[in-house]
Amino acid sequence: MSSTTPAPARGTKKLPIAKAINESMRRAMENDPKVLVMGEDVGKLGGVFRVTDGLQKDFGEERVIDTPLAESGIIGTAIGLALRGYRPVAEIQFDGFVFPAYDQIVTQLAKMHARALGKIKLPVVIRIPYAGGIGAVEHHSESPEALFAHVAGLKCVSPSNASDAYWMLQQAIESDDPVIFFEPKRRYWEKGEVDTGAIPAPLHTARVARQGTDLTLAAYGPMVKVCQEAAAAAAEEGNSLEVVDIRSISPIDFDTLQRSVEKTGRLVVVHEAPVFLGSGSEIAARITERCFYHLEAPVLRVGGFHAPYPPARLEDEYLPNLDRVLDAVDRALAY
């Protein structure tokens, strides 16, 4: 956190991820009057997932702004506000709604700092509830993170638990660079301990969520829990799996991944997005380069299929699950 942020009273709370994000925005708005929240239905309704519930009531309509249903307008306005010294936190209601704003994000937001030779900064956070698991139709369950991670000038992160949701969002808001903050919507209601007085890890570092010796499972956002469940199941069969929560999709903390793979000799990367050209592809290539003489098996990837997101009744077949992760683990351990 920046040196200008007042230190909060130390205390631990058990919060669902949605509430942790709400309290994170609340604290950021209390600490800095230039922080604004904007998006479709974020004010009076409190957001479709109630993540912004109560913020407009407490901070007013000039700081928590209900926007028109126009994603390009939301991001364009956020860029203008950032140019005037504000720190807007823009919500895209669902992952699949972001594409009307894609032009604004990749040609303006991501490029302005370089275009101005460093003289202009755009501290914009774009919150995107993403991925599946809620039984919704297409455009409400996509995982588009690789499309943004590929764009120079954008940072992309995704918390997997309440503590990271609380701290990573504040760090994103304090960053002078634009940050895409992917929120795993299927995990919104899962609770975890949040120490509001802790010193958080740097925003773009990975975290070893479970120690192991035989194979590394790497994931971010909603798939971290699946990997932890897989590690627990594998332990019953005598296999020790290490789980690395990647947390930051761009930039990626390859050093933490490398240390883990050098110890275990095997890596399986898991994400909900399609395997084809997904974030796991870059991780597999980079770790193969870095750890070639430590690897006992090829790096394997588990993800969604290269197909449009299916109807709700087929969702469980499309999304990576415990069995698909354990199948990849078995294949890697068989080498």
Name the beta content range: 15-25%
Helix content: 25-40%
Give the helix tally: 12
Report, as a whole number of angstroms, the end-to-end distance: 44 Å
Uncertain runs are 1-9
- Biggest beta sheet summary: 7 strands, mixed
Structural class: alpha/beta
In N-to-C order, the SSE pattern is EHEHEHEHHEHEHEEEEHEEHEHEHH
Roughly how many Å is the radius of gyration? 20 Å
Q: Outline, from the CA principal axes?
A: globular
Adjacency order of strands in the biggest sheet? 3-2-4-5-7-6-12
Mean pLDDT over all positions: 96
Count of strand segments:
14
InterPro entries: THDP-binding, Transketo_C/PFOR_II, Transketolase-like_Pyr-bd, Transketolase_C
Protein name: 3-methyl-2-oxobutanoate dehydrogenase (2-methylpropanoyl-transferring)
Keywords: Oxidoreductase
Cofactor: thiamine diphosphate
Structure description:
The protein is α/β, with parallel strands linked by helices. The chain is 34% helix and 20% strand. The chain contains twelve helices and 14 strands. The protein has a seven-stranded mixed beta sheet with strand order 3-2-4-5-7-6-12, with helices on both faces. Strands 9-11-10-13-14 form a five-stranded mixed beta sheet, with helices on both faces. Strand 10, helix 8 (223-235) and strand 11 (241-245) form a beta-alpha-beta unit. Helix 1 runs parallel beside helix 7. The longest helix has 15 residues, at 17-31. The radius of gyration is 20 Å and the shape is globular. The chain starts with 11 loop residues before the first strand and ends with a helix. Residues 1-9 have low confidence and may be disordered.
